[in-house]
Write a structure and sequence with these properties.
single chain, about 100 residues, mainly alpha, Recoverin, domain 1, two-stranded antiparallel sheet, about 5% strand, binds calcium ion, calcium ion binding, calcium
């Protein structure tokens, strides 16, 4: 893929999508979904700076339980996206606050 021609935002979106599929089992009958244990691994490996407590199994399981909207015990792309939204919205608020402080 010619990634050089993509904008930073497009590259970021691609990273988010690729990261999801990195944890989807390649030879599983359950396509396009991440198991709880793999998702826990992803939280620990990929989000340990933005999410505290990812090493805490109980906390991670609770987060996964909350994300698993259809309660099938696996995380779909939509459910993963809920997590991304949950992480980014406090960041957006922080940026907005900083802008308000500098402008007024
Ligand atoms: Ca689910």
């Amino acid at each position: 893929m010619a990634e050089d021609c993509y904008t930073e935002l497009e590259q970021a979106i691609q990273v988010l999508v690729v990261n999801f599929y990195k944890y989807v089992p390649k030879h599983s009958l359950v396509r396009n979904k991440i198991s709880k244990s793999s998702f826990r691994k992803m939280l620990q490996k990929e989000l340990n700076h933005m999410l505290t407590d990812t090493g805490n199994r109980k906390a991670a399981d609770k987060l996964i339980q909350n994300l698993d909207a259809n309660h099938d015990g696996r995380i779909s792309f939509d459910e993963y996206w809920t997590l991304i939204g949950g992480i980014t919205s406090p960041i957006a608020n922080l940026i907005r606050q900083q802008e308000q402080q500098t402008s007024g």
